[in-house]
Amino acid sequence: MAERFDAIVIGGGHNGLVNAAYLARAGKKVLVLERRYLVGGATVTEELFPGFKYTVFSYVVSLMRPEIIRDLNLPAHGLTILPLESTLTPLPDGNYLYRDGDHFRTMRDIARFSQRDAEAYDEYGRTLYFMAKAVKYMLGIVPPDPTRYRPGDLYGLARLGKHLLGLSEENIYMLVKLMTMSSADFLEQWFETDVLKATLSASGIIGTFLGPRSPGTAYVLLHHYMGEIDGNFRAWGFAKGGTGAIADAIARAAEGFGVRIRTESPVGQVIVKDGVVQGVALDNGDEIYADIVVSSLDPQQTFLNLVDARHLPDELVDAIRRFKFRGSSAKVNLALDAAPELACLPGYGPHLRGAISISPSLDYLEQAYDDAKYGDFSRKPYMDVIIPSMIDPDMAPPGKHVMSCFIQYAPYELREGTWESRREEFGDTVINTLAEYIPNLKDIILHRQVVTPWDIEATTGLTQGNIFQGELSLSQLFFLRPAAGYANYRTPLKNYYQCGSGTHPGGGIMGAPGRLAALEILKDWKH
Length: 527
Description:
The chain has 527 residues and is α/β, with parallel strands linked by helices. Among the domains are: 4-42 and 61-79 and 241-324 and 466-526, FAD/NAD(P)-binding domain (3-Layer(bba) Sandwich); 109-230, no CATH class. Helix content is 36%, strand content 19%. The strands form 5 sheets. Strands 1, 2, 11, 12, 13, 14 and 20 form a 7-stranded mixed sheet that branches. A hairpin with a 5-residue loop joins β6 (87-90) and β7 (96-99). α8 (194-201) crosses α13 (362-373). The longest helix has 25 residues, at 115-139. The radius of gyration is 23 Å and the shape is globular. The protein starts with a strand and ends with a helix.
């Protein structure tokens, strides 16, 4: 007789693994099915060139919920977060803006551009700290639906209202601004220095098909500001061993609770009989049965690819077809023969252990978006660059380095040609842009990997290569993520649940959707 499970989790990304771990921790017999040869989804580390470990897709960590780290005891399973304390923004004229964990040094550097901005920087930081604390509450709750009159939703709305009423009048006004304004407009209320506004506003465009002057990007800025390590907001870090080490630690914790993980096991279909989910069918034809099935895949995969649309309400099918993915991010990963030399700050220094932001001005970012808006990749792209081997020497052989370059914009759909035919042209554009700030770059490249949105989709299954499983726009947040009426991790099909980043509270290496979905599943089991 075929083995049966209490729960099958589709997808071994970090949310799927978190979900499985919480279910198994509650005593359930859980199977995770992952299509690739390793777990992690977009949270992976791979040695694609001998001796050099690439953080292929995601590359930094900050949003991982502290409660998950505690509940699963991830440090005991090998999770170590190394601080990523600085951001250097080089300028074409050889100048630079440098911000790091030394508050007074950061203030002095900002004051080189504007004394007024240096004074405003503290107030800006305090305001976003309070905003992050205000929104942090929402990251830990199931979104109540204001259109339903169920007791749970009414109680949730009352608690949310009480939380918001606890904010000061000034903070409520500021929260409304953050939810509706563009990141550029929001920052222009505080600062006058173009490079400072550009570097800060770049957080508002990551993973979105929007420019810094597009309404709604101020919330994305706040979403990234909520990075929290050991209770410190706006703390960014690098996982020792790359982001794959995060997935590996969660997987080890899950296996410690009894979870069984099967790699190279792509799921082709969810088995539905009389409106009730019974299990899954793998691509090879094998059928595996369980009491419940949880999809950590994106909404397109969860509702339209794994399930026949005839099993779902028409309004849900229509909503998911309208759900915006619009992948716009790419990666270029490099193996280097030596350390990069920045024109603005030559030689070794702490600046090489932090982020390097290619965001010299707001116009630069907006022009990068203009290229993508009309169907081409950015000719002068925004880049967020880190050198993982400077933070964790085990990422490359002694004296060698790896460089991870996150790029905006690279639209999934190109107006001319295909990504297959233009991948190397795009890679050349990235290297040529970066070489303007790192003159020795072309001489030290040993190997490069160019990852387009098309590659992200083909490798991980993320629709259109969107790293957040769907844009973080206002129409796709909270009780509208992924669709009105279906933000509580349940689906119209009995015994079928969702727990990916396409659900509340969204993307990033956060784990919150996996955890919240597991808690809801366990409630249903109890009742």
